[in-house]
Amino acid sequence: MSTGTPTSRVLVIQLRQLGDILMITPLLRQLRKTWPQAEIDVLCEPIGRQLLEHNRHVSQLLHLKRGEGAGALLACLRAVRARRYDLVIDAQGLPKTGLLARLSGARTCGFGGKSWRRLCYGRRYTRRNADYSALDKLRLAACLPGFEADPLDLDIDFPVGEADRRTASAFCARHFAEAESLPDRKGRRRWKVAALFGVSRQAYKVWPPEKLAEIGRRLAERGYRLFLVHGPGEEQAAGELASAIGPAAWRDLPMLNFAQLKEVLGSCALFVGNDGGPKHLAASVGVPCLALFGRVHPQAWTDPRDPFQQWIATASHMRSLPTDGPCEEAESLAGISVEAVWKQTLLLLQQVEQGG
Question: Is 0.85 surpassed by the pTM of this model?
């Protein structure tokens, strides 16, 4: 491997939620390939520990909680400077992450563009919001001397500990065993269970629950059981969706952490629902997914290499950059019809049921 400028200690900054953090894992893997002896740290929000604690490419995790004041930011900067990094890669691009990179004392790399934040970085990459986020973050580091980027190496890494694997296995054995099973495209068998994700803390990401319930009822008519994915505080919404679907939907299942949820989703035959972290977990384990997008750009969160990762979005003129694929002529998620979603669901089901 080419090493270019000596790099023995690297910090990658990536705050925010589950999907954002998963999108940096191809970058972490390729940093390790380029600099196999380097210490590679990640600065993330506390939620990142669940996703990265078993990642063999990560040396150390630093945390910065969302919404904390200047004192926490200064404490974080002191911790960053104490590590004496050779290189800081800001994969987030917020004002505070740009300042942390600029004041770190290290060489810096970040997203360019017209914002003043471009001045925080020695090397810059101007991203296209229509590109897959994992690829965008990889291209960010590709501007570094010596970094060897493989744009086809985009698989998401989320290693799960043994205890969480056992919990997930017991969950499936207890709750999914009454469902039929299907062979998948890699010769494994999955339960004839469709995961539905109908909730979100962000209202603009939610397709109307009554429409998703209709998709659930149609799946039930085809012999599928329904696993309703939700997070803490979303139990009531998930329960109402289960009631609207009927007896094919499980209710009051125990809460799972992200690692356990990933493993359980890996046993499902299909995922349908809102864009969000659970969709990325399902995609990371090869589950055929149909995700619904409103203002968020669908291609930024969909692996372009995988034909089993499909989306339905609102009209292209609702976002600053158009999509390369068709969108429903709807101004919001609420305007996307059940028939449009069911048509795309059936196309995926045909592949699923043929072991495609």
Answer: yes
